[in-house]
Design brief:
Two copies of one chain form a homodimer.
Chain A lengths: L4 H12 L17 H16 L3 E4 L5 E4 L4 E7 L12 H16 L5 E6 L10 H6 L5 H5 L9 H6 L14 E9 L4 H5 L3 E7 L1 E10 L3 E2 L11 H15 L9 E10 L5 E2 L2 E10 L2 H22 L2 E6 L6 E2 L2 H14 L4 E6 L4 H5 L5 E6 L15 H17 L1
Parallel strand pairs in A: 3-4, 3-5, 5-15, 6-14
Antiparallel strand pairs in A: 1-2, 2-4, 6-13, 6-15, 7-11, 7-12, 8-10, 9-11
Helix pairs in contact in A: 1-3, 3-12, 8-9, 10-12
Chain lengths: ~400, ~400
């Protein structure tokens, strides 16, 4: 099997024209937008030309079926509201090229998928969630976009093109190629990452309540300032979490609301969210213990009332060991000494597909670690290296 | 001159009935509300009964004029949206009682004032700002309440009751009695405070801009997290400001806005306000130098873009030395060993009146330091002690 890198890059740039932002290589192609539907129509044609049987499923996932039982390759072709040209698109077009090359070589059977609404215009990873049975279709249908459209209304617009659910039994495994969206590969000057697991994610909504008071008359030593509670909590996390974290562990306070949020009033209340991610369940547990005890301690030390509630967690998803081994061998053959095994810090469609079959992922570097931004990009040589590793792995399976 | 404490307390409770919240002794009597207008009508009657000539000025300040040249006593009778019964009201009724007692004693000439919109339903200290020439009437007229009414519309509702501007030349000085709204008097078990100055206030609007990024894929060591910039800035203030502060100096971060304020996104931007107050201009300067250099340092250390803009500052207002001396002598006579000289952490109408004549203030304790709250209160014995100090000072002037 011989992939054609020029044809692969040409298709990647052709897909980029659907929703091209006009800013760098950026794209604006949210799920079920005109640009997204046009891109799926174009992809349908490319699949047919490659000898695959296109099938749009009821929730907008577009499959290109090889006919025989075999591997499924792909990702998603919808984008963020201000997205990069590779996030999702790369995995779909790489899958298409490998399927085409396999067809030309007389085998093996390689099918392709572009999942729908991975970027969460309505839900989050909606297409792969429904297909894998992780989300009931009627629950997905009720989800709303920011502009007030339900997922049901959106998918009704392409209902005339849609067939039934695609039977997953025809696929032996799923490999998703994707950009890293982080700094590690570029930092190590590696061309390829073989993903070991997709990190788990947990989050706590925390409220500290102190005493709202006059910012002029209330002496520093009698204040129970909720914002100062948050600052002390944050300092404690930065002090203690590194003791259990690896260099890949992350934690983030990204959402904060002070009350009453006025310049002359000591904040009586702060509601905020702390999120953390790690590849190991045990480390997620240890981080959680530190975070919860930090909140308890700060509340007690500062006379603050504490409320803590957890958001639904995502468990880490281990990549299949056999598939990792095949991808590692392929990487050794194609980019010897220039690849690494690594976790994925972001959640992907592969997390859902793991409910149905063995899954694996292969990463290529993101320049500057930038993603979800028009500036997102990857060196052409790395795009091709990733494609060749994927093809080599499929050939060896 | 002999004040009548029973009559004083009865009037104070009578005023409380206008806008009584039904929660503790709380009141809801914002400027130009029905309750506020009714309270001013009642006050007009009480002034007339006391032998004073009532005059509502064009912006709603209600004077009770003694006729001869002499001291002006008072404060404001409008309240916060959820206010206490004493904030402002105390100074007005204490002034009324002293004026009445002085009248009964055959002198001296004591006039009374209830300023309008001290609590800032439209502006802030609007009535005393206009009367003292610190705010142009046409600028005040354009100010809007939260429910969208202009100050011009509000004052038009009582225009039929209003006379012309009251000539300040008839007043030799102004003394404002007020609750402390802070913890110091109660903490020291003092009954009275003689105010030395009203603190100055400065504020900076600060923006840190870092790099918005994916909270899963972006390693801790490459982040430029704007919220972490704010937290580090706050820690530096808490570390360095105590080196120049007195125990009365205060600083507050009460207003914070993160962008994009989402749980899975590293904050790319934080806009916040830091306010500080002190009685001394030189100390305000030293605090400002620390705050500005902390912002510079944190921005440089963390690779954040920094924007700083100052809000209009308020300079400290010194109380008149002679009036302070008279009040101190009076306090020595009435509550020997149970009073202290102290700054005012809050801004008051006296800050404005200082443009026109010598001013002074006398404080009584706030239970628990609580104000701007239905729970605001002061022991009756302290209310009476404050009244007696005020009357004694007027008698000695």
């Amino acid at each position: 099997m011989k992939v054609n890198s020029a044809r692969f890059l040409a298709d990647l740039h052709a897909l980029r024209q659907f929703g091209a932002s006009g800013v760098g290589k950026g794209v604006v192609r949210p799920a079920f937008s005109r640009a997204d539907i046009a891109a799926r129509e174009w992809l349908t044609g490319r699949m047919r030309e490659a000898g695959l049987k296109p099938q749009l499923d009821p929730v907008g996932n577009l499959f290109g079926l090889a006919g025989g039982r075999g591997v499924l390759l792909g990702s998603h072709s919808d984008s963020q509201p201000e997205g990069g040209w590779l996030d999702g698109a790369l995995g779909v077009i790489a899958g298409l090229e490998v399927a085409r090359a396999a067809r030309e070589a007389g085998g093996p059977a390689v099918s392709v998928i572009s999942f729908q609404d991975e970027e969460g215009r309505y839900g989050a990873l909606t297409g792969s969630s429904v297909w894998s049975g992780g989300l009931l279709p009627e629950v997905a249908d009720a989800m709303l976009s920011a502009d007030g459209e339900t997922f049901a209304e959106a998918r009704a617009r392409v209902a005339h093109l849609a067939g039934g659910r695609v039977d997953p039994a025809q696929f032996t495994s799923f490999i998703e190629m994707h950009i890293e969206q982080g700094p590690w590969l570029q930092q190590a000057n590696d061309a390829v990452g073989v993903v070991t697991s997709i990190v788990g994610l947990r989050g706590l909504d925390i409220v500290f309540e102190g005493q709202q008071n006059h910012a002029g008359t209330t002496a520093m030593h009698v204040r129970r300032d909720a914002f100062q509670g948050l600052a002390a909590f944050n300092a404690r996390l930065n002090d203690r979490l590194p003791g259990v974290a690896t260099e890949r562990s992350v934690w983030t306070i990204g959402e904060v609301a002070l009350s009453p949020n006025a310049s002359s009033i000591i904040p009586g209340r702060v509601a905020f969210h702390v999120q953390w991610r790690d590849a190991e369940t045990e480390r997620l547990d240890r981080m959680e213990a530190i975070i919860r005890s930090a909140a308890d301690d700060i509340a007690a030390l500062r006379g603050l009332k504490l409320t803590v509630s957890a958001r639904p967690p995502l468990a880490p998803v281990a990549m299949d060991g056999d598939l990792q081994a095949v991808l590692s061998d392929a990487a050794d053959a194609v980019v010897p000494g220039r690849w690494q095994a690594m976790p994925s810090g972001a959640v992907h469609d592969a997390s859902n597909v793991a409910r149905l079959m063995p899954v694996a992922m292969v990463f290529v570097p993101s320049i500057g670690g930038i993603s979800h931004d028009f500036a997102e990009d990857t060196d052409e040589a790395d795009l091709v290296a990733g494609l060749e590793v994927l093809a080599e792995a499929v050939a060896r399976m």
